[in-house]
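Human: Not sure, check this?
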Amino acid sequence: MVKPITVWMTPPGPNPWKVITILNELEIPYEIHSFKFDDVKKPPYIDINPNGRVPAIVDPNTDLTLWESGAIIQYLEDVYDKENKLTYTSLKEKHLLNQWLHFQMSGQGPYFGQASWFNILHHEKLPSAIERYEKEVHRILGVLNTALENRTWLVGDKCTFADLAFLPWNTHVGIILRMPEGEDPLDPYPNVQAWQGRMQSRKSWKDAMRMRDRLMGEQGLTPIGMPKGVNNMKEYEEFIESQAA
């Protein structure tokens, strides 16, 4: 009998939800250890992940503790996806899947994250930094839009872990780019827009988002991941200091 995997996370960020969605897809039992962002650099989490970033998993079935969302996804595929539900074993497809996962981790995640930082979380507006990372967001979306031309999925004829890895960050694009309410930032990228819609309609994602809403509510967090009334990281740090005092 498979024992539940423990997933350590702070609920606002996109990366933990890549892992939760994969766990849902593969129907792997798990339990979430949700904690506040201001504790990511403190024990006990820093003892699990010395890098102080989320997510991390502890798997009692293999006695393995693992961090970095991409590494966790590959691990879950290797150990638990025995039916190849989200993967392929053929040489070509296997390496194409890894290519797209690496692009998500080296391209989409970092550039979308920096755009989010300078557009939302940084207390000082730096136009040159905002312009650079917004352009990178659009560049990444352009790459994906081209790759998905006349295709339903990135690799092969089914949704795989490579597709799902892009899902959480793409869901945040409107917030990252501070789009006016009612405008879809994916309108200029119809292939990405349709692909995103296909993934968001999956039960695994809907279940993950219901769980995210609950965990965010428990911590009193707004959609940008800050406590209500806090608008950037400087204010958040001041908020933490006031709470400690």
